[in-house]
UniProtKB/TrEMBL annotation:
SUPFAM superfamilies: DPP6 N-terminal domain-like. It comes from Paenibacillus radicis. InterPro entries: 6-blade_b-propeller_TolB-like (IPR011042). This is WD40 repeat domain-containing protein.
Amino acid sequence: MSKQGRLDSFWGRLMVLTALSVLVAALFLGAGEWYLRAMNRDKTIILDRSLFEENGLNRIDRMIKRYSPDSIYELQTLRNGTVLVLSQKQDEKSSGSALSIFDLAGNSLIPLVEKEDVVHIVASPDGNSILYQTFRDNQPETVWYDAAEKREKGRWTEWGNWTLMPDDRHSVELYHNYIRVRDLETSESRLIAKVEDYRMNIPKKDQLSGSFVKQLMTLALSPDRTHVFMPFYRPATTDSEGEDIIYNIDLNSGAMETIAVNGVVGDIYDIRPWGKSNVALSGRIGGVEGIYSVTSEGQPKLLKEGLYDQMTYNPVSNMLAYTARGDGRSRVMAATLDDKGLTDEFTVYDNLGYIHSLQWSADGETLLAVTDESTGSNVFQFRMK
C-alpha cells in the first residue's frame, strides 16, 4: 500500500472511531442532553418522554430543560409568563450576583441588576414592582425597583428579615418581632402584629453564603393575598410546655389568630396556606414525618407519610407539588389538595437531582424546578395538560 493510501486509511479509521465515540456519548447522556452540551449547554431542549412514568405522562403536556451557566439561588414566578431570577455568576470575566427576568416562552434572560450584591428578592404578583435586599458600605438596604422601566424607585437603609409583596405598592415585613406593612410610595410603615417571645437581628454580611440569606423563619401569603401565615415555636416556661403554633394575620385589620398545632412537633420544614384558613405543612408530628393539613382549630391530619419538602400550592387547580426524598433520590410529585386530602397523586419526574426550588407559574399551568450543577443550574419546566 502506498504512503498516501495508508494515510487515507488512518484518517478513515479515525473518523469512524470519532463517530462511534459521539454515538456512545449520545446514548449515555441522551440525545437531547448531548445536543445541549455540544451547544455550550445554554439551550432549550424537549425532554425524552420515555423517561417519565405513565401516570405522569397522562398529566404532562410538555417538558423543557434549560441550562443556566449562573447558579440560581432564588426565583419567583410572575403573572406575565416570566420568572424573576437571582443568580450567582460563575464565569471568569465577572463575579457576584445578578438579578434577571427569565422569559419562559422565549427562553431568554433579561438582565435587570448586575452591579449590586443582591441577597434576597421578592416581586409583586404582576411582576412590575420588585424589592431586593443588598448591602452598601456593609450596611443593609432595601431597594424598590420598577422592572418595566428598569429603574430604581426608592431605597431605605433597613430591611425586614422576611419580606412579601401582596400587591405592587405594599410590602409585608418581619422586622425584629413585629409584622409590619410598608407603603412603598411613602416609605411609611404600619405595625399590624407583634410576635411574642421572638428575637432576630438583621443578618450581618458574614451570615451570607454567596447571595443566599440564611432563612431562619418564613412568611407565607394566603392564596387571595389577604392573610399572612407564620410558623412559630413558643418556648416552654415554668407554667407551660413548649408548643408549635401558626400565626394567621389579616393584613387589612391586623387581627391575628393563633393556631396551636395539636401534637408534639419536632420540626416544621415548610408551610403552604390553601383554602380559606387551612395550612399544609411538611414536618414531624408525634414522631411521624409527612405532609399534614392543619385546620384553624389546630387539628393536624396526616395526608402522606414520608420525608417531603419544597412544597408549592397551585390555587388555580388546587394542586400541591412537592419533592420526596429517599434512597438518595429526589422525586417531584403532585396531587390534588382539598377537603378529602391528597388525591390523584402522580410522579412528575423521578430522580431529578438536588432540587432547591419548586414553584408553580402564576397561571397554574407550569411547574418549575431548579437543580444545581457544579458550574450552573438547570431549570425544568413541566407544563400540565
